[in-house]
Amino acid sequence: MLTAEYVTGLSIRRGTADRKWVALVDVNNFYVSCERAFAPRLIGRPVAVLSNNDGCVIARSDELKALGVEMGRPTYKLNHLVRRYRAVLMSSNYALYADMSRRFNDVLGRFSDEVEPYSIDESFVALPGFFTDTLRELGQSIEKTVAKEVHLPVGVGVAPTRTLAKLANRVAKKLPEGQRFYLLEPDSKETESLLKQTAIGDVWGIGAKLSERLQSLGINTAWQLRESSEDLIKQRFSVTLQRTQLELRGISCQPSTQQVKSRKQLVVSRSFGQASAEVLDVAEAIRSHVNRAAQRLRKQKSVAKAMTVFIRTNPFNQDKPQHSDSLVWVFDEPTSDTSEMLQAAQKLLRRIWRKGYFYHKAGVQLMDLTDSSSAQLSLLDESKTAELRARNQRLMDVMDSINEQQGRDTLVMGAKRKVAAWHTKQKACSPAYTTAWSDIPRVVAR
Questions:
Q1: Which residue, of 30, 66, 85, 412, is most buried by count of CB atoms within 10 Å of its CB?
Q2: Sorted alphabetically, which Pfam families does this protein's record hold (predicted)?
Q3: Crossing angle for the helix pair 383-406 and 338-352, nearest 10 degrees?
Q4: Where on the phi/psi map is residue 59: left (φ > 0), alpha (ψ -120 to 50), or beta?
Q5: What torsion, rounded to 10 degrees, do the Cα atoms 193, 199, 201, 205 define?
């Protein structure tokens, strides 16, 4: 394991500790922070990052939250804030956010060999072998290193279990900059106090419906769940809640998120920036979605037995004729080959396309997914077909490698136009600072 001394020169004492620790490192206001990393003029100003087609708010700076702006607010309702408070509205730049997430995790990898991304803006970091009295110095070192090298503000919550680390992180993110570290020891008075103040619905993995069921039994806080009868939880709830109860007691039993089984279906779709009656626009949208879906499929090491292609007009625009349709293609053998999927998608689109309709959305759904290593192939498969499949697989591997290194959609199959009606509206999108040579920031000496 790489130690913190290797990274920072800190004199952190290592050895056989009394328990294993896990940290949850979470970036504050991730999308906004990514924008601010390259545009310091946004620091201190209310900033909103908008959804596809700039329709509504999906991320907010603290300054915007203070103005009472909630998630999902339509963009047109923010115009008065732009005029009065100089609020800034940014189109979402997912290529930038994905690359910044990769850089963030690269830094965490210097502190531990076990870094497990949980979402685009947070990761679990295993910290075995650290003494309790050195964890604070280590946590603050993680915060300062990420801030220095990636220019992202993070909070570091450390505890013996993932569930407690989640709660510790919520506290850490509210602390002053440079001190955003919080440690939870399961049997301390500090932990008891925090759990008593934590509503049951704020515990990791407990949703609204489960929260209501627990409250009906008088379990309203994290502490009450921790102290509840194990027999009661076992009889009335799932094994997942039993694990949560044990985790609140400091007993690690939540499985790694990387051990969760792959999805059984995969959908890629998007509303168009502008409705289109041109078949070329819809066909290009379908090609883009197939490329994206196939790459995700290969990333989770799966193959698909079937694929659905669907198109539809805008159901809210009743002034124009309506049409929606979908068709399923069943592959001869399970596949993750982009070229094979594109051929099938083109055939399906020709069958469901209707001239004279303005289509607003298109997408693909890959179904009946199985592990690629255990997929059943035909016994009648000819040697030439097997050779072609192996060659195509090598091509897919090269495409995925290039897209991983150079940025999403660097290399795709099928023609790609710079301007098309189906492209999403992004009137205020920041440059691709880290994934496009043309957008690299320029520094001029004066």
A1: 30
A2: DUF4113, IMS, IMS_C, IMS_HHH
A3: 90
A4: beta
A5: 0
